[in-house]
Amino acid sequence: MQQLRDGLLLQEDLNFLCTNRIPRIFVTRMMGRISRIESPLLTRAGIWLWRLFTDLDLSEAKESRFRSLQACFTRELKAGARPVDPDPGVIVSPCDAIVGSGGPVEGTRGFQAKGFPYSVADLFGTEAAAEEFRDGCYVTLRLTSAMYHRFHAPDAGRIERVTYHSGDTWNVNPIALKRVERLFCRNERAVIRLRLEEGSPVALVAVAAILVASIRLHGLNVLLHLRWPGPNELPCRLDVARGQELGWFEHGSTIIVFAPKGFRLCESIQPGAPLRMGQPLMVRGAPGAGSV
């Protein structure tokens, strides 16, 4: 048993070294350039290699052929592939993901992993921006490289503003989250502030990572990437419907969803569980708050 534990720890250390102790920003920019090359041969070879290391499934993709690796990363799905739960008492997952840390916000503090807290104010950029979510609810949703990479509105409302923070590109997998303090606050990220139709604020924090070349948001005629100094306050007044597409990552990463006091996670939201866009995520107006 001790040998097994030692082997797992060594594997984690090697993973951390291979994905983080490298020139992360340089490698990420190079990946962005390579992924945009429009070459059938390069694209087929890249997808073949990708499938050797992941459970990439393209059967739900709207297109069967891709002009570049980026087009495959950011693929659309066939109509009806992600039904959106219509229950007005819940807000839904904005993306396909694996559930990470979540539960009640402790004052204005969240957790990236057990024993690794971070300030929501640091994540958002200001104390005022975090205050609406004091004692609220949050959940971390990690997108793996093989997943559907587009993200959507968790409910109907209006996007009031977007704050873009340039930053590092640490890997956001569980291994790194247990080793790098305040990782989400260090990485490139976009804070999307949504006001629901009934008045509640909801925030989606799209956190980039190693090999994530950029974040694209509909409603903003700009590609958010590492060459933008930050923070940048981007005016936005976009009405959205529940499940409407908001944008995409150009590789796997993380979205952290925040809701105010009075929301709690659905009982089905458990750590390590797979989740699809459109499935129930948080419940409105319920007493108490579960944690994962």
Q: Any overview of this molecule?
A:
The protein is an alpha+beta fold. It folds into 2 domains: 2-73, no CATH class; 90-284. It has helices spanning 2-20, 24-35, 40-53, 69-73, 120-124, 127-131, 174-177, 183-186, and strands at 90-92, 97-104, 109-113, 116-119, 137-142, 150-152, 157-165, 189-196, 201-207, 214-217, 223-225, 232-240, 245-249, 254-259, 263-265, 274-275, 280-284. The strands form 4 sheets. An 8-stranded antiparallel β-sheet has the order 12-7-8-9-14-5-2-16, with no helix packed on it. Strands 6-13-10-11 form a 4-stranded antiparallel β-sheet, with no helix packed on it. The chain is globular. Residues 1-17 have low confidence and may be disordered.
Features:
292 residues, alpha+beta, 2 domains, 8-stranded antiparallel sheet, 4-stranded antiparallel sheet, 8 helices, 23% helix, 31% strand, disordered N terminus
- Domain count, please report it: 2
| Strand segment count | 17
Main beta sheet strand tally, sense and closure: 8 strands, antiparallel
Give the spatial strand order of the biggest sheet.
12-7-8-9-14-5-2-16
The number of helical runs is 8
Low-confidence stretches: 1-17
Into which percentage range does the β-strand content fall?
A: 25-35%
Taking all Cα atoms into account, the compactness measure Rg is 18 Å
Mean pLDDT across the residues is: 82
Any idea what the shape is? Answer: globular
**Beginning-to-end CA distance, first to last residue:** 27 Å
Estimate percent helicity. 10-25%
Structural class, judged by helices and strands? alpha+beta
Taken in chain order, the helices and strands follow as HHHHEEEEHHEEEHHEEEEEEEEEE
